[in-house]
Amino acid sequence: MFDYISALYYGESLGICRPSPLDKPVEIGEKELVRHLERINAAMGGEFSEQLLRSLRVVLEGCRLEGFHSGVHIGGQLTLSILGDLQ
Q1: Closest to 59 in 3D by CA, of 26, 22, 13
Q2: Which residue among 8, 13, 30, 51 is least crowded, i.e. fewest CB within 10 A of its CB?
Q3: Which DSSP category does 25 fall into?
Q4: CA–CA dist 66, 2 (Å, integer)
Q5: Is the CB of residue 27 less than 8 Å from the CB of residue 21?
């Protein structure tokens, strides 16, 4: 069985995060975003597009981390609630 506690402690991958939607778009909205970025690259040039892409990666990664932290917090609160009811 995978040891999630050790993986979190040692900063190892949990294997639950999928690749960035900018690298491997899966959903329709992600594919549409990549098409828009390609059009921006063609119209505005490479330097602007690279800066925009870096900014989007930072924002998307921040959202992903915020979602993970929120899920951990909710899971912890749920666990505490369940264990509190047992006593």
Answers
A1: 22
A2: 13
A3: -
A4: 23
A5: yes
The residue behind tokens 């925009």 is 52
Cα separation of 72 and 74, whole Å? 6
Residue 52: which residues within 8 A CB-CB, separation 6 or more? Answer: 37, 40
pLDDT in tens, 34-70: 898 889 888 888 888 889 888 988 888 888 888 888 8
Whether pTM > 0.70 for this model: the answer is: no
Residue-by-residue DSSP string for 32-76: HHHHHHHHHHHHH-HHHHHHHHHHHHHHHHHHHHHHHHHHHHHHH
> What are the tokens at 79?
């666990």
